[in-house]
Each structure stands twice: as structure tokens, then as C-alpha cells.
Amino acid sequence: MMSNFDIKFLKVKMKKTMIVFAALSFATNMNAQNYWKKGMKEGRVIITSQKTNEKFAKKANAKFVDFPQPKETDICVFVDPDFKYQKLIGIGGAITDASAEVFAKIPKEKQKEFIEAYYGKSGLGYNLVRTNMNSCDFSSDSYTYINDNDESLKSFDVKHDEQYKIPLIKEAQKVIKPKDFRFYFSPWSPPAWMKSNNNMLKGGRLLDKYYQVWANYYVKFIQEYEKRNIPVWGLTVQNEPMATQTWESCLYTADEEAKFLRENLGPTLWKNNYKDKKVIIWDHNRDLMYQRATTTLQDPETSKYASGIGYHWYETWNNKSQLFDNLAETHRAFPDKFLIFSEGCKEQFDFSKIYDVSLGELYGRNMINDFNKGTSAWTDWNILLDEKGGPNHVGNFCFAPIIYDTNKKELHYTYEYYYIGHISKYVKPNAQRVGTSTNKDFLLSTSFLNESGELVVVVMNEGDADTDFNLWIEGKSSKLSAPAHSIQTIVL
């Protein structure tokens, strides 16, 4: 429990941090309207459209003319590259047991195609990889890395992962630039004997007497993966700590998560020279994100161990729409912690719907809004599943951007894949988000400035009608077309 002094100290520290953050933003933005001073540019236009069945299709270049003041009736996407915000850590997806097991069934030539499609120069440019520590629902069975009741962890062995997961992670790692490779992991549940319900499934809590043993477990996992030349960038404390699921799950209140991080996990990582590992709290939905962050991180002794705040998109289980404003509020409260989208997928798999454009629009809508609200890293859920939306040992079958039909030996690229790619192919790690807005509710847009100087603007039309729009950048505009249910990327 914090003293009054600690509470006052934290409030003063947060206030100073926010003042500095605001001052830096002002200093960055005070010299606005400079984009065209280096000369006129044309923009490459790439589009994916349900109407024309085009995927990453190149269109005529965007050419700009003077357009000082648009009218309210002019449909516009406004971009000001002089207003700069968060930098991109990366975009990627999870290599789960399910993804790795399906990958092993693909013929060698198609495996090469798959790896290139996600990680190669002609592919999506993924650099972020998440995996599960111990089993999750997208595993073929429940497993841990130790023998029952081995508090010493002497039996710790990741041999299970060496059959499928580690080989696929290493295939991805070969293609990703070493400086950009970001690998992190999440536990779904401790071993059953460490928990209050003596079960890896159906919730339960980590017993107090095993807090330190469980903290040691994370260190063992890092050591074993790094022995295999897979550098660990980060970890989340617990996947979905408020959900009692039919699959692997474990509950923590905000105070319990803080206690575990402050007294066990954080000090144990630092003591083992893992101070550089990025610890991510929450790792659950946007609905409670602000409450969890402000509660878990209220103590400076806890906050110093946390680098990021993770979240999922499943708050629609009891809401009509996604709660993007909670991201902005959390980002304002903790500008020194990065926001990372750590999981999302379309549930209730139906093979007959794998080519629905709504799958892509779900991703486009979330990614654009997430980035515009301050997110620095974005991780899809399974990178690959089979024709049943699995394997999943509790029958929680879902969609993935790429589906492999194990019967017909075919890879299916859904609209999820293409909509993700309209951002991930063109926005590079360490790119900086820049000011962007639209004046129509059916047009969504976000923009980034790559380190190379390339400006990347993504525009999504989720409306039912084709529309022309003005891409307006600091007093100049290019007239472009956005077909109904399409997404496009303009690169200048």
C-alpha cells in the first residue's frame, strides 16, 4: 500500500512527464507547413478493391495542384507531415502451435511462398512475432515445460516447441532484418499445480507461494530460446488476466498483477541481466485498459519494470463497437509506455466466408484507429490456420489472414491479409505517425513518415458507394478515387 508521500510523488512525476511530452509536441509542430519546400512530388497509388477484385494493384500516380482552402462539401483526407507523433515498433502476427503445425503440413515450395508472403521483400514485411509460453487454446493439447511439482525448475525443457514452433520462428527470423526482429511471448496459464483450481483451464489464480517460482519460469523460457539464437525482445505478464476461459487462462486483479511484477517478475528479470526485456502489462481488451493501467502502474516501484501496455479487440463481446477512445486516454496518461495491440482475430470460423471483404475491413478499421490513437506496435493473432480454423484443442475455431486447406493443398489469402498489407508493406519499423484526418465518416485514414523520407498515406472506404476525394497536404491536393469497400496506399 502506498503512503501519501508516494501518491503525491507519482502525481507530480506524471504531471511533469505530461508537461514535457506536451512541450516536445509543441516544439516538434511549431514549424508546420513545410512539406512542399523541397519541391513537388508525385505519389504511387496501390489499391485493393472488392468491386474490381484487384489486390495491391498499381494505379496512375497521384499528382498535386494548388488547393489552399477546401470547402465543407469537398471530400478530403487531410495530412500534415509536420505534426509528428509516435514511432512504429513493428507489425506482425503470432506463431502459435496451431500455425506451426499447419505450416509443417505445407509442401516445401508452398512453405517458401508462405514465408515470403509474410516476411519477405515482396510480402507484408512483418517484423513482430508473438508466441505462447506453455499451451494456449491454439495448441493441439495442454502442456508445460516442467515435471509436476518441480519447484526447482530443473526439469525445464522446451523440447515440445522444437518440433513445430521454433522451426517456424527461425524461418521467419531468417528473412526479417536482425535489427528489426521483435520476438515476444505470453503465458496463458502456469502449470495446474501452481494454481488455485489445480487446472490450466477455466481461470483460477496463481497461488501466492508460487509467485517466485513462476517468475523464475519466465527467465528459464528466455534463456532456452536465446540459447537457440532467438533473441527475446519482450513479454506480457499474462494473456487476458480477467477472462475465465474454457481453455488455458489465469486471473489477476490489477493489484495482483502489480504485486507479481513489483515483487517477483520485475526484480527477477533485472537480477538475471534482462533489464532490456520489454515487460507489457494488461494484454486484454480495450474496455478496462485505462483502469488497469492507472491501477497497476500507480506505484513507481511497479511502473519502473513496465515498458508497454498491451490490449486486444474483443471488447465487442459486451459492446456494440470497439472502444478506441480508451487507447487515447491511456496514451495521454502514460506517454512513457508504448501501446501494443497484442491480439485480435475474427471468431466463429466459416470456410464459406474466407473471401468476405468484411474480414479485411475489420482489420483496416482497427489498425487505422489504433495507430491514430497512439499505438506503436500491432500484432495479429494466428498467422496461419487450416480449413477448419484450427487446430484448437477446445474447438475455438477462428479466421486467419492465410488459410491452408490441408485436403486440397491450397493456400487461401483472405482480405485480412491484403488490408494488413496496405499498412505493413509500406510503413517501415521506426516510421513516425503524422497528422491525418478526414471529413467523412466512411473514409478512414492514417499516415506515417518513413525514415527514408517517404510519406505513406492509407485511405479506406468502408462505405457502399464509390467516391472521389482530395488528398490534401499543406495547401496542395490530388484528386483520387476510392471505390466502395476498398483500401489504398499512397506513397510519396
Word description of this protein:
With 492 residues, this protein is α/β, with parallel strands linked by helices. The protein has three domains: 1-31; 44-85 and 434-491, Golgi alpha-mannosidase II (Immunoglobulin-like), CATH 2.60.40.1180; 89-426, TIM Barrel (Alpha-Beta Barrel). Helix content is 29%, strand content 26%. The protein has twelve helices and 21 strands. It has helices spanning 4-29, 97-104, 108-119, 159-163, 165-175, 211-227, 254-271, 289-296, 300-303, 325-333, 357-372, 415-424, and strands spanning 43-49, 54-62, 65-66, 76-87, 90-94, 128-133, 182-187, 234-236, 278-285, 308-312, 338-343, 375-382, 384-386, 402-405, 410-413, 432-438, 443-449, 455-461, 467-473, 476-482, 486-491. It has a ten-stranded mixed β-sheet. An eight-stranded parallel β-barrel has the order 5-6-7-8-9-10-11-12, surrounded by four helices. Helix 2 (97-104) packs across helix 5, helix 6 (211-227) crosses helix 7 (254-271) and helix 7 packs across helix 8 (289-296). 47% of the residues are buried. The model is unreliable at 5-30 (pLDDT under 50).
